[in-house]
Amino acid sequence: MSILFLSILLAFLLTVVIECAVILIIFRQKKYVYYCLLCNLLTNPAMNLLLSIFVSLFGVRTYYPVIIPAEIAVVFIEAAVYDYICGFGMGKAIKLSAFLNALSFAAGVLLNHVLYT
User: Whole-angstrom distance between the N-terminal and C-terminal Cα of the chain?
Assistant: First the structure.
């Protein structure tokens, strides 16, 4: 297996574990955990592949200039999915998506700090 694949898989698994656990705590319904998994299948691998490509081509200095707009796009894409399949309304869906993505992003930053410093 390639390092890139394992890196994307680890990022996906970390994201899913954190976001799905929080969804379960908030809503206490398994269907929302499934919806969270679907949202992350849609966005997480694509975002991490994009990020890996930019960092490989242009260096680690491109990490934050790429991840910040990518995370913002992910928040809105996932919010649209949550709104559509859960009927939350866009306001609630954006808040939920932003909260979940902030938690998983922070966990990823923390994990990278622990592993690489």
Answer: 25
Q: Tokens 């992003």 belong to which residue? A: 105
Cβ–Cβ under 8 Å, residues 97 and 75: yes
| pTM for the predicted model, two decimal places | 0.90
Q: What long-range pairs does 11-17 form, CB within 8 A, spacing at least 24?
A: 11/44, 11/48, 11/108, 12/40, 12/44, 12/45, 12/48, 14/104, 14/107, 14/108, 14/111, 15/40, 15/44, 15/104, 15/108, 16/40, 16/44
Q: Would you say the C-alpha torsion 55, 71, 83, 80 has a positive or negative sign?
A: negative
Tokens encoding 82:
């949550």
Give tens-digit pLDDT for 34-54: 999 999 999 999 999 999 999
State pLDDT tens for residues 60-115. 999 999 999 999 999 999 999 999 999 999 999 999 999 999 999 999 889 888 87
Domain annotation covers residue 19: yes
Structural domain span for residue 80:
3-106
